[in-house]
């Protein structure tokens, strides 16, 4: 058995360690979501916590870890005899990102259930984690339906498995811990809210602390048992402190003054719903117990707010989590209650934690971005109006490749876009964009199962078994079912796609108002991609070449950051942009062949630079049409004279052209339901109404 890295040997990361310990004291806090860059001891700290959890008394032979003092009356292994128990360490169960629904909640033996009427249930990971820790690494990459099941079980304290009228329920109370790297994509806001606490972690920039991290890690790797033995006393002290805090917790008093501060803080920061108030109250109570006090003080409320509120203030995926601590202090001071101790004992600091040097970090996450130098430059109030089609051409002096690069402008306000979807039926990862065969959705038919049966089609199974009843010697009322009779339900739902943006950043797009509108449109499509669980990528082209500004990723906020800082100017290498996008899709098809792509080209259709650039761009576009890649061209051309170049490009791509105005969901004239594939004739798929 591998010796875990000692919890008390983790250097720094005070907020992370405190949040984990508070949940160990009071699992009712609701778990921890740990967000941070790679290599910051997220997984190490979580795995180390399991060694500190107090041992459990369990009913002997119970697969669901029932407490012998209060066994679950509905336990599938019950009823339990009294006095038959054993003691074992608390478990830490890891949920793999690629786990199936049956692996998470358990599975029924459908064949025995139909043929014998027996509830033959095989417990899943939720049963294993009961009264322990359930750890989900890269929780942001977990399929939505698994996250929903997981969080429902965490909220209700029970797991339900229901298949074709057969139902099994068992207790599932556990400490839920998730870790994630925001660069790989975000969780939906409503799922963020289901985690009690969230901690932002980052590697220290202090050389001495980094040296200590390396020294301890090397010592552990050389001799894990010996390294752990050196920290045994500190581990035992923390374990005893957790036990003492658990015993003290029922005696902690949450006074009216502290409750008023909690309510006022949640109201002041405009947190949706009441879950934040409840989590803050439980966290403040756990903080007091951890500090050995029976009264909740203002300092407990403040620390609870820093841990429980930052992730609940996000209104969209591009908002940085964080809390204005000055505003928090003003609110707490304004609503200080009479039952508060104005001068708390400094010896009872709830942040005190044995083991590891103090890195001085105390916040509940970074403050919102104050904005960079581009913020001032992005204001459009004093910007000159955009030149029309009769204005200065790209190749004229002062506008070509030799002209100076124009600074980035701010994106216009995002809006709700039309639904752009890939035609046909795919089999990619679950999402919300295009039609696909999925494990969840409406039933469209039945087939023989490939591997384990997951979704039984009852009617098809009965029809397959019925003709053979006499040959199988059926004598009673029951149906004789064989494994060959079982039929898997085929279901149709929605999949997530790869939305690859190819954005023209050349001189013809450089007018401030136009580029602001273009960035606003792309930002709107990125928000739509976030909501539909897509991967996104960003290719830009300007000057003499194209570049991959962002390789395909699930992090749409990373794409938004790259988009915001995108400068403009120079010629329009449209062919180079399309060829670079083609290379990106080719590589991504090898990595994830089931995920279908949607190419979104944002341009006015102009092409300059080199001999016959328009013909070269047309040949590059026909590569996508030949491979059946779904595409849409967002036509950014404006002015009284319109050349229709973007529509012509859409014809070469075998896709559809849509103007910026038609992209809005409120627009009726430009309704876009499906992005036409290459199989549709260009004359039908590229016609565009005159303005």
Descriptive labels:
23 helices, disordered C terminus, alpha/beta, single chain, 6-stranded mixed β-sheet, 5-stranded parallel β-sheet, 691 residues, globular
Question: Rg, please?
Answer: 30 Å
**Looking at the structure, what is the overall shape?**
globular
Q: How far apart, in Å, are the first and last alpha carbons?
A: 71 Å
Q: Overall pLDDT, averaged?
A: 80
Total count of helical runs of at least 4 residues:
23
Uncertain runs? 348-404, 668-674, 676-691
Major beta-sheet overview: 6 strands, mixed
Number of strands: 20
Give the helix/strand class: alpha/beta
Q: In percent terms, what proportion of residues is strand?
A: 15-25%
Going across the major beta sheet, what is the strand order?
17-16-15-18-19-20
The helicity comes to 25-40%
């Amino acid at each position: 058995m591998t010796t875990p890295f000692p919890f008390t040997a983790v250097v720094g990361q005070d907020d992370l360690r405190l949040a984990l310990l508070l949940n160990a004291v009071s699992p009712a806090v609701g778990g921890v979501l740990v967000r941070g860059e790679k290599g910051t001891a997220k997984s190490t700290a979580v795995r180390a916590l399991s060694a500190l959890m107090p041992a459990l008394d369990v009913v002997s032979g119970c697969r669901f870890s029932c407490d012998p003092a209060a066994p679950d009356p509905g336990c599938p292994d019950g009823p339990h005899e009294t006095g038959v128990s054993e003691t074992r360490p608390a478990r830490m169960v890891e949920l793999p990102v690629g786990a199936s629904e049956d692996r998470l909640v358990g599975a029924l033996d459908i064949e025995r259930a139909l043929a014998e009427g027996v509830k033959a249930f095989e417990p899943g990971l939720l049963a294993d984690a009961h009264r322990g820790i359930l750890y989900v690494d890269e929780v942001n990459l977990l399929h939505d339906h698994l996250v929903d099941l997981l969080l429902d079980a965490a909220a209700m304290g029970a797991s339900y498995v229901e298949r074709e009228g057969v139902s099994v329920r068992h207790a599932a109370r556990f400490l839920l811990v998730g870790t994630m790297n925001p660069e790989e994509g975000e969780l939906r806001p409503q799922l963020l809210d289901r985690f009690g606490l969230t901690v932002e972690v980052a590697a220290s920039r202090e050389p001495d602390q980094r040296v200590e991290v390396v020294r301890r890690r090397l010592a552990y790797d050389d001799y894990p048992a010996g390294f752990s033995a050196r920290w045994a006393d500190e581990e035992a002290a923390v374990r005893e402190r957790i036990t003492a805090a658990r015993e003290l917790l029922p005696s902690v008093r949450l006074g009216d003054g502290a409750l008023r501060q909690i309510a006022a803080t949640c109201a002041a920061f405009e947190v949706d719903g009441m879950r934040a108030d409840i989590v803050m109250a439980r966290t403040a109570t756990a903080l007091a117990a951890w500090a050995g006090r029976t009264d909740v003080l203002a300092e407990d409320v403040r620390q609870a707010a820093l841990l429980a509120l930052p992730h609940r203030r996000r209104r969209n995926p591009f908002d940085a989590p964080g809390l204005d601590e000055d505003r928090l202090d003003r609110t707490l001071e304004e609503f200080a209650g009479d039952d508060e101790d104005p001068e708390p004992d400094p010896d009872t600091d709830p942040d005190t934690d044995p083991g590891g040097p103090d890195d001085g970090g105390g916040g509940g996450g970074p403050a919102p971005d104050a904005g960079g130098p581009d913020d001032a430059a992005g204001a459009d109030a004093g910007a000159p109006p955009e030149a029309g089609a009769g204005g200065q051409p790209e190749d004229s002096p002062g506008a070509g490749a030799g002209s100076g690069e124009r600074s980035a402008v701010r994106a216009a306000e995002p809006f709700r876009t039309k639904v752009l979807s890939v035609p046909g039926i795919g089999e990619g990862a679950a999402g919300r964009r295009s039609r696909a065969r999925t494990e969840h959705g409406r039933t469209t038919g039945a087939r023989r199962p490939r591997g384990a049966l997951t979704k039984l089609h009852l009617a098809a199974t009965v029809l397959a078994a019925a003709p053979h009843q006499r040959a199988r010697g059926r004598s009673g009322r029951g149906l004789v079912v064989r494994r060959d009779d079982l039929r898997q339900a085929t279901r149709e739902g929605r999949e997530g796609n790869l939305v690859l943006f190819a954005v023209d950043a050349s001189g013809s797009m450089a007018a401030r108002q136009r580029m602001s509108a273009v960035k606003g449109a792309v930002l709107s499509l990125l928000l739509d991609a976030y909501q539909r669980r897509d991967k996104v990528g960003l290719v830009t082209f300007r000057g003499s070449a194209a570049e991959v500004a962002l390789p395909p990723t699930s992090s749409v906020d990373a794409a938004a950051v790259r988009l915001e800082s995108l400068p403009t100017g120079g010629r329009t290498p449209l062919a180079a942009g399309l060829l670079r996008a083609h290379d990106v899709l080719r590589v991504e098809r090898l990595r994830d062949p089931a995920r279908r792509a949607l190419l979104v080209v944002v341009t006015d259709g102009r092409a300059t630079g080199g001999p016959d650039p328009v013909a070269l761009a047309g040949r590059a576009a026909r590569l996508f049409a030949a491979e059946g890649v779904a595409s849409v061209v967002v036509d950014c051309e404006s002015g009284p004279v319109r050349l229709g170049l973007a529509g012509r490009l859409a014809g070469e791509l075998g896709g559809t052209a849509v103007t910026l105005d038609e992209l809005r969901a409120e627009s009726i004239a430009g309704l876009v339901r499906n992005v036409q594939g290459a199989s549709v004739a260009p004359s039908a798929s590229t016609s565009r109404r005159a303005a």
